Amino acid sequence: MRSFREHLNEKLKDRHFKELYEEERQLAELSLSFIGTRENLALSQADVAHKAKVTQQQVSKIEKGINCNITTFLKVRNALGIKVDLELPRIAKVA
User: Fold this and answer.
1) What is the DSSP letter of 36?
2) Of the four, 30, 38, 85, 91, which is 20 to 30 A from 58 by CA?
3) pTM for the predicted model, two decimal places
4) How far is CA 20 from each of CA 25, 26, 28, 38, rounded to the nearest angstrom?
């Protein structure tokens, strides 16, 4: 019987699966950072929602990794004081 890690390593050989897996991994990482920061600040979801001027349900969706719009994400991020770095691809200059 194969272990989970062996099964995952086999699946990760598929490029499409690997891309989707990486997206989900990053989303889970972001969600956990939001939860951890909120808990470290001793805030409830309702507290964050009030501070961000969004609903508690929207905060919950972000923490669960459910799709939200970028404006909501930024409001909650700012309310928690979280910094998120984005790496933009380098664009070759046309001569």
Assistant:
1) H
2) 85
3) 0.77
4) 9, 10, 12, 27
